[in-house]
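ok trying again, last paste got cut off:
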Amino acid sequence: MYTYKKTLKLMKYKKTTSVCYTLTKEQSFAFSLYAQLFLDECCYKFNQEKLKSSINDALDMKDSKTFMKLSKDYNRLLEINT
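nice, full thing came through this time. structure:
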């Protein structure tokens, strides 16, 4: 079994309390998996929005080379995550 300790600080009374959680190996693995999936989704959305913004900027500046490169990168990002 894995034991995780969480410290809570109550700002109003400036007291610190300690809470101890005991997790099974399976629960620990599940939490790690959820965290990894969450981080992957955040990175994917960040990259997607950044590419969309850059593509729009390239279109506004009428820069066809940059637009084509960023469009390929965007399509590759979509292919990887489907």
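cool. The chain has a mean pLDDT of 84. The CA atoms of residues 14 and 62 lie 58 Å apart.
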